[in-house]
Amino acid sequence: MSEAFEPLTLRTPDGHELAARAYVPAGEVRRAVLIGAAMGVPQRFYQAFATWLAAQGVAVLTFDWRGTGESAPRSLRGFKASITDWATQDLPAAADALCQRWPDAPRTFLGHSLGGQLFGWLAQAERFERVLTVASGNGYWRMNAPAVRRKAPLLWWVLAPVGIALAGYFPGKRLGAVGDLPAGTMWQWRRWCLHPDYVGAEGPALRERYAQIRHPITVVLMEDDELISPEGIRALYRLYAGAQLRFESLHPHAHGLKRLGHFGLFQPNASKLWPQALRWLEA
Predict the structure, then answer these.
(1) What does the alpha-carbon distance between residue 187 and residue 178 come to, in Å, rounded to a whole number?
(2) Are 141 and 195 in contact (CB under 8 A)?
(3) Distance in angstroms (rounded) separating the CA atoms of residues 43 and 45
(4) How many angstroms from the chain centroid is the CA of residue 138?
(5) Architecture of domain 6-282 in CATH?
(6) Tens place of pLDDT for every residue, the chain, 283 residues?
(7) Dihedrals φ, ψ of 232, to 5°?
């Protein structure tokens, strides 16, 4: 293959097509990993990390949530999508594809930010042996990092409502915030970010599903995360009340890096940390 990945098209239970990529090791597959992307982050962002994992014998599947990246229509105006759709339609389709492609490999779910927030919503979550979350926490605005917390009222009470009203979707690229998102997705995320329980705002039935998760979850938080505070990271896992939790803190200076932040672990300049990430994925 001329590319580092094999392009795929996934079909969700409700009939949507999602763009996906399979990173296939040249030899024996020691593990299969599904990456759930952060809000507004296209799957191509994870290409360098996924390519490196494949070189270590780890098969990787990435995908774009409906309405984002290569899974977006030409125009988002009026496009119907919600985070509930992502969790109950898109994520299961991707999990099915991973399991069908590598049925005998042990499987890990890797959730970055929003991706980790949604794992407890996943049907048949037991198909994954373990979970690794990166910069994935409770996005309640009062638990944001200080700089973001100061700007949050502007985003949630002005930019989001006005932007959606004018554009028919959230024009994040033009506003310099998050990225372009379907209106329904942004409205639901807004509701979560204004509620102390965040995802738990969906009600007791969903909170009970999260509490039933029994997986080993390694939670990686960045001490210099510019979006969410360490307190906010830890707060999410009150929902995962039955899981086996292990928290790992990364400070960039301890690893000779100027910064890591919310997105840095997946960047090539942080590749010295990737062997540690592989250990977390496996154990």
Answers:
(1) 14
(2) no
(3) 5
(4) 13
(5) 3-Layer(aba) Sandwich (3.40)
(6) 447 899 999 999 999 999 999 999 999 999 999 999 999 999 999 999 999 999 999 999 999 999 999 999 999 999 999 999 999 999 999 999 999 999 999 999 999 999 999 999 999 999 999 999 999 999 999 999 999 999 999 999 999 999 999 999 999 999 988 999 999 999 999 999 999 999 999 999 999 999 999 999 999 999 999 999 999 999 999 999 999 999 999 999 999 999 999 999 999 999 999 999 999 999 8
(7) -65, -40
Q: Is the dihedral of CA 14, 17, 20, 24 positive or negative?
A: positive
* Amino acid letter for position 21: R
As a whole number of angstroms, the distance between CA 164 and CA 180 comes to: 10
Distance between CA atoms of residues 131 and 112, nearest Å:
11
Q: Which of 103, 109, 88, 115 is nearest to 205 (CA)?
A: 88
